[in-house]
Structure formats: C-alpha cells, structure tokens
Please model this.
Amino acid sequence: MNIFYRQLRRILGAPFFLFLLAAFLLWNGFLISQKMPMQREINLINDIAGQTGIHINADFHQKFQKIADASEADLRTLYQAKTKQAPADDQKMLYALTETGLPLTGSEQDRVRDISATLNLGNAVQNHAEIYNGFDINKRGTYFLKEVGADASLTSFLKPNYAKLQQRVEQIRQDGEMDTLFFPGTTYAMHSFLYNTLLKSILMESAILGVLVMLYSVSFEFMHGTQALTYTTRRGRMLTLDQFGASLFTGLLVPLFLLGVTLPVYFSKFHYSNLWDSIVSCGMNAERNGMEIAPYVTWEPMTIRQYLWTSIAILFGLQVIFCLFAFVTAVLCRNSYIGFLGYALISMALLALPSMISPRSLPAYLTACNPITAWSICRAWLTQVGSAAVYPQYIPAILCCWGLLSVVLITFSLRHFRRRDL
Amino acid sequence: MLTVQNVTKRFGKFTALQDISLEFSHGVYGLLAPNGAGKTTLMKMLVTLLFPTSGQILYDGAEISSMGSKYREKLGYLPQDFGYYRNNSPRQYLHYLAALKGIDRKEAEKRTEELLDMVALSDVKDKKMKKFSGGMIQRVGIAQAMLNQPEILILDEPTAGLDPKERVRFRNLLAELSKDRIVILSTHIVSDIECIANQVIFIKDHEVYCNTDRDSVCTVLQNKVFLCTVPEEASDDFENSHFILSRREEAGQTHFRFICENQADVPPDAEISTPNMEDVFLYVYREE
Model:
C-alpha cells in the first residue's frame, strides 16, 4: 500500500499530468461555450416539458396548445407594438421582428427567441412521427450490401441484424417510444453534441492521459536510470505491478474527474431535468446524418438517463482497455516517448483500417470492431447509426474480446519482463 | 554462502563471461579487471538484473532467481552508474528505496538518519539532489545500499568520485561491515582493494584469471620488481626495453620502477623492490 501510494503521489504530482488535465478542462469548457447561443431555447423546451409532460398524446397537445397560443398572442402584441401594423402570419411577423432591422430591446429579443423556439417546437412535435414513416432498415441494409459488393458471409451476418432492427423500428412505432418530447434534433443536435462532441472529447482526453500516465509510471525507473536500484530491492520487478495499479487507478480517476466537472457544467447550462425519461429513439431526436435525417434506433428501449449512464459505463470500459494496452506497451518498450509514439501509430492504424479495407467480407467488416473505431462513433454506441456497427454485440464484443486480448498480452509481457535482462 | 557455478553469459554472439566459478563467504572480495572484462556483468548477475546463459548462482544452496524476494531482501547493491530522482532530497530518495526494500516507515526514518549521518550528508538531507556533486550522489548511493543492513553487499566502483578522506572513511566502514557479511566490490582503484579486500579476484579474457587471498596476490611478482636510476638521455632506451611500472624525473635523472622476469636481464645497479597489487594489476593486464 505504501508503495502504491507513493506511485500514485508521483503520478498525481507530475507536471504534465496537471497541465494536461487543466488544458482538457478548459477545452471542454470551450466546447460547451460553443453551444451557449442555444441555451435559452434549450432551457425553454425543458421548461415546456415540465408543463406538458414528455409523452406526446392528447393531453400533451392540449397543454402545449395553450403555451403556443400564449406565444402567438405575445408575438402579435410585440409585432403590433413594434410595427404599428395589424397581425399577420406567424412566420411573417417573426421575419419582420428579426430580419428587418427593427430596433428591439434585450428583453424584446429574448421574447422573440422564446416565441420562435415555442413555435418551432410546435412544428417539430407536429412532424415528429414522420421520421419513422417509411423508415425501412431492411431496404437501407440491402442497398449497403449491394454498394460494397458484400459476399455471402457478410450478407448472412448482417441481414438478420437488419431484420432485428426493423422489428425494433416497428416496436418504436407501436409502443409509443417515438412519441416522447426531446430537443428537436434537426435544430439543436443535442444528442450529437453530448455524445459525439463532449463525450468523445472526454474519452479521447482520458485515453491520452491514461496512456501517458501508464507509460510514464511503468517506464519511470528506466527513464531515470534507477532500475538497477529499484528492481534489486525486495519488491524487485513486482514494482511494475504497483506502478500498473497506481496508473490504472489514475486512468479511471481521470474520466471520473473530467466527467465530474464537465457534465455538471453542461447540465447546469443546458437543463434536462424534465427530459430524463424521454426516449432516445423518439422522433424528435432524429438528426441530420450525412444527406439524410435519421432517428437513433437503439437496440433496446432506453431513456435519455439510461443512455447517458450506459454510455458513461462504456467509456470507462474502453478507458480500461486503453490503459491495459498502454501497460503492455510500457513493459515491452522501456522508453516512454517511443512507447507513446508506437501506441499512437497503432491507434491511427486501427482507426484507418476499417475505412481502408472495403467491407466486402465479414472479417473485413469486423475490423471496425476495435476500441479506436468505437471511440470514433461515440454517438452510435447503443444505436444503429452508420454502417460500422450494425449488430447489437458491437460494444460487448469490443469490451470482452479486447479486454481478454489485453489480459493475455499483459500475462505474456509480465512473464517476459520477469526474465528479461535489465 | 554465495556460489557461482560454471556461469557463462552471452549477449548474442558476444561472450561476456565464460564458465565462471566462485564462492563467497564472509569478508571483502575485490574484483579487479579492466573495462569490458565482465565485472559489471558478473555483479548484475549476482543481483538478478541479468540471468546466466548457462550455469547457476546459488545462495545457501538455493538458486537465487527462484528465491526471488527472499534473496533480494538480503542484498545491498550500488551500481556503477545509478540514476536518482533529481527533485528528490536524499531523505525522500532513501525513504522510497526503504519502502521498496520492505523496511517499515519508522525503521526507515531511523536508518535514513543514521546513514545520512554516516555519509556526512545530514546537513543537506532535505536539499534537492539535482544540486549535488558527483561525490555527494555517490555517498547517497552508498547509503541506500546499506539501508536494509544487507547480508550481501555488492558495490560496483563505490569510491568513484569520493575525495581521499571520504574514501578512507568508506574503506574503514566496509572493513567493519565485512565481519559478518559478504562484501563484493569492483574498482579500478587498486589501493581500495589492497587496503580492505580479504580475497582478490582477477578476471581476464572473460574468465577468472586468479582468485586468491590478498597476501598471496603479490607473490607472483616476488623478486621481479626493481628500482633503478638512469641518466635522462638513456631513459627512452631503458623504457623501451623494460616493463615499466612507474617513471619519475629528478635532477637530470630518471627513476624507474620496473618488472624484470629474467634475473640475467636485471641491470647491475638495480635494487629489488616489494611488489604491490597495482604492480600485479599492470602485469596481469599488460596486453590490454
């Protein structure tokens, strides 16, 4: 414990660690600030959800109509006051207030934004079900298979999964999962921002720090030329295990800290309090994905809250894998700089590999089943988005297979280290 | 007893040590050899940093690498070049190594104070080591080797960088320690070994050339070392025709100390001299 504690203290006091941690926090703050222009609208939608509830049904429509009516009345009042003209069509009035250079005070501008957000929300609610109309995953899948020239192995692997997803789409339609309220995806893209920007960034930051810390700690004695002293003590080469333990602990502490600071800041700026029980696959959450607008079809029904916690758990799982591989690199490579370079090159190769190989066959398709590609498709971990992970076992397979591989490699590298000339 | 049995160590095609067999019991063992002869390799094998290619090293009959921590807890080791943490003070450094040596915190604090006092570093015990001279670092190294009161003390060039006063102190300390433990030291400074070693081991051509007690070492040159004074103009010729141990110029004369193996070749005015270990060292390694 004494040695573990000393290793931990050494890591936590390392200047590079503290500097990068601070830099990453600042970066996350910067990312959140990029979304701040939407803050008022986002929080208004959350407030509306508090009044209407999240289930889009008759009761919802009745309550929402009152809010929309009040907004329209406010719009008319403001329009008349500013233009001295009779009320017209909502869109025309909004255009006149926002685009014609009418002088508006700060509070009037806020009123216009609130009215606009409410009316846009009304439109999104009206159209939310349309996204699932004609949404045919089988058809999309068949198109993908044809486009890549998939062989029999890939076709027989993916077709049942397309069918399974289509069943989910039917379930989403029938069980009313699509009929819950969320920030309109096409306007605000809050799911993408939270997962593809913020969580992706936090995972990358955690991985960078986790890997650096592991390389720093495990190669510390070699970098300082103290290996002849430390590895001939009673603790001997077992010291590596203490360094491993302290580094892994820090590697998990880093995302805990980054998430623990970043997410509270994010959720304090963008209120989700009334939307936690909305469904991720709801029609409102459909976002632009390349040329099309598509919903997030999750493999299992998931609320916003469940999805977030599960994603955080996956993030920690991937972080463990990144740290375990860093340990193998550190044991096999005495120089932490070379180790980091090697690790970065392998990571880049893993990221590039699936896009370089045409996924015609199943083995080629499965090259995307690696933790680096998983990082790159952060927003789609539990859903079908894109073509890399159209099977429900994607994340469990990565965590199990790569976790197992890392354990095997660690065993091998430790055995090698135990008998290596130093 | 520490036993080296027919140990060979190869690095690829290069043989660093060939079929070495040695036994160490209590006392000071001086390891003498020029650079590259395999001294450090042998020491690294004794402390389990390197593993023999063939042969084995035993401590009280058990293979040292299989003894693991049971063996290492008996070890004190001062490598030839050892690193340190530049921002640590000697006290922090020793506390860390004490923790690795399995010494409990209170005992470590006590031992650290004693050892820093012993190596005369008490007044800088909380200063960062990056400001230390080579000699001070070496003294910290000596202190760490003794932290766990080792049964086997292995010192690679321990007096390098020490001033003459410190060297004498250190020699006396080793002589005292060697009463009840094995002390193995390698050095280029022959006088260190001459003063304190009970047993002297010469390694030549990667093999043990000689393993004998200190007093017997010099018998190899008994009646073969001479002193002679030659006029300055004849000194170069004399130097070229004899095995010179030392040369000193004084008032137009050159004083030589030399080895002459053949009594017939001894100059008539030469005086016989008592050989010392440095003479033997130069003689043994004359071709290197």
User: Anything to note?
Assistant: The radius of gyration of chain B is 22 Å. The mean pLDDT of chain B is 88. Chain B touches chain A through 27 residues (CB under 8 Å). The first helix of chain B runs from residue 39 to 46.
